[in-house]
């Protein structure tokens, strides 16, 4: 790409990142070839140290190019599990990590959150013409006004099912927590998604969202576990997630 390109947008060296997937891939591919050949970077705008900071991004780019859906799903599930670990240690202050609970959260990412989000981002991108005025704002409004209020109760339902809650317990959790989760969602995600839809190339939007979601997943992990604990209190003689994920003696 010519460095004198008149396209608008923030730059990484001579490459564009805003609404320009091809330039972003060109940057990553050029960086790849530089390190494979063991030579110096061909771009005077970037030092070798700066190039090294893009190592993980280049690796993700290669995986995302060869197996995009799988890469995005595994990325989401991994960061969800990380969020649960942080929730256990930093918020709930557990003495030891409940790895069964974390594994369940990872599984939820694999079967629900990752597949749904990776599909949604591609479909949402096709809803509006590329040249539409205020496109990022409109995409955010659709994402947060229509998708989120459906997706989040769905998450609570899937979490309850994975944790072996009964249907009436799942319904009670949704009634009790769904509005709180949706309102909390709106405190973070509208601004994050405007940035995501406006500046991040489509194949990397789930990576950006998953990074932001690391902190959001801490909250979701805590909230979903609260629902299970309430179910345990209401049905003390029945096994639930708390029994299955915490087998330590009292």
UniProtKB/TrEMBL annotation:
It is a multi-pass membrane protein. GO terms for cellular component: membrane; mitochondrion. InterPro entries: Mpv17_PMP22. The keyword Transmembrane helix applies. Keywords: Membrane, Transmembrane, Transmembrane helix. It comes from the Eukaryota. One of its GO terms (molecular function) is channel activity. It is found in: Membrane. This is Mitochondrial inner membrane protein Mpv17. The gene is LOC100899945.
